[in-house]
């Protein structure tokens, strides 16, 4: 990211068009088209932008790592999303078990803290804090109407990986072809976070991490709380794949094998 970056050099239309052309969707799991979220809508004006830096599922650390390593890129993406959406206030929600991420984001914002209207908000570490309705409630003390969506109360929620992708799309004209994936669990030999091409088979990630342990019995796309078990390891990584979690027989419970 260049030192002279200024989001005001881009119009809302330019930002939204770049996001659409790049094929950016919500990378926290929902996969909703990001352009639709950030584009101005006179019927539902947006006032508050919430950045979701929570990972409520155990084991998953991909968003945590990018908050530490892509901090300035995330801040640039936040400013571009705010510019496009017309939001006047921004809150970055990060679970309180990630003090280094909270520190890194605050340090990156420090030169602009008084003028930019962007605030880091530590939130309680609990499941399912990463859900947008739960995060809105935690930060704003507001409820999204049943059957409704956040823009109905003037709120937009974007994942930290999504805003990082927005920065790449707008500043570098780069499409969304890669993402960070956590490969983890007690059933994987060498867990870690990896920047991988969309379409990579899960089997290649497992092989790169040294393979499965002898105790491994289940592979899940996502985390143990909300992930989906897969039987075919040629299943590819998608834009919404945050993790591949490998569980052992002991973790799943003996009753499953009775």
Q: Given the C-alpha coordinates, what overall shape results?
A: globular
Classification by helices and strands? alpha/beta
Number of domains: 2
- Annotation, overall tally of beta strands: 9
In the CATH scheme, the class of the largest domain would be Alpha Beta
Assigned CATH superfamily of the largest domain: NADH-ubiquinone oxidoreductase 51kDa subunit
- How many helices? The count is 9
Order of helices and strands: HHEHHEHEHEHEEHEEEH
CATH fold name of the largest domain, please?
Answer: Rossmann fold
Q: What proportion strand? A: 15-25%
Separation of termini?
55 Å
Estimate the mean pLDDT confidence: 92
Word description of this protein:
Keywords: 4Fe-4S, Iron, Iron-sulfur, Metal-binding. Residues 19-167 form the NADH-ubiquinone oxidoreductase 51kDa subunit FMN-binding domain. One of its GO terms (cellular component) is membrane. This is NADH-ubiquinone oxidoreductase 51kDa subunit FMN-binding domain-containing protein. Residues 180-229 form the Soluble ligand binding domain. By secondary structure, the chain is α/β, with parallel strands linked by helices. The protein folds into 2 domains: 7-172, NADH-ubiquinone oxidoreductase 51kDa subunit (Rossmann fold), CATH 3.40.50; 178-257, Ubiquitin-like (UB roll) (Roll), CATH 3.10.20. 32% of the residues lie in helices and 20% in strands. The protein has 9 helices and 9 strands. The strands form 2 sheets. A 5-stranded mixed β-sheet has the order 6-5-9-7-8, with helices on both faces. Strand 7 (216-221) and strand 8 form a beta hairpin. Helix 1 (12-22) crosses helix 7 and helix 3 runs parallel beside helix 5. 41% of the residues are buried.
């Amino acid at each position: 990211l260049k030192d002279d970056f200024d989001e005001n050099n881009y119009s809302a239309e330019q930002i939204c068009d770049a996001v659409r052309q790049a094929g950016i969707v919500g990378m926290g799991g929902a996969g909703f088209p990001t352009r639709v979220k950030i584009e101005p809508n006179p019927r539902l004006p947006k006032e508050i932008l919430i950045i979701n830096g929570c990972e409520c599922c155990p084991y998953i650390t991909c968003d945590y790592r990018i908050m530490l390593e892509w901090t300035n890129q995330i801040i640039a993406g936040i400013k571009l999303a705010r510019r496009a959406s017309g939001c006047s206030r921004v809150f970055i929600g990060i679970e309180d078990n990630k003090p280094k991420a909270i520190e890194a984001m605050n340090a990156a914002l420090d030169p602009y803290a008084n003028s930019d209207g962007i605030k880091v908000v530590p939130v309680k570490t609990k499941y399912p804090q990463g859900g947008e309705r739960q995060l809105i409630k935690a930060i704003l003390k507001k409820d999204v109407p049943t059957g409704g969506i956040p823009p109905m109360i003037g709120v937009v929620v974007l994942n930290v990986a999504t805003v990082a992708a927005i920065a790449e799309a707008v500043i570098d004209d780069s499409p969304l072809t890669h993402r960070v994936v956590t490969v983890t669990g007690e059933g994987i030999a060498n867990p870690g976070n990896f920047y991988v091409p969309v379409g990579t088979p899960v089997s290649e990630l497992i092989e790169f991490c040294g393979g499965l342990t002898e105790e491994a019995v289940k592979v899940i796309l996502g985390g143990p709380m909300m992930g989906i078990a897969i039987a075919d390891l040629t299943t590819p990584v998608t834009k919404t794949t945050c993790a591949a979690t490998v569980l052992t027989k002991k973790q799943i419970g003996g009753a499953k094998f009775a």
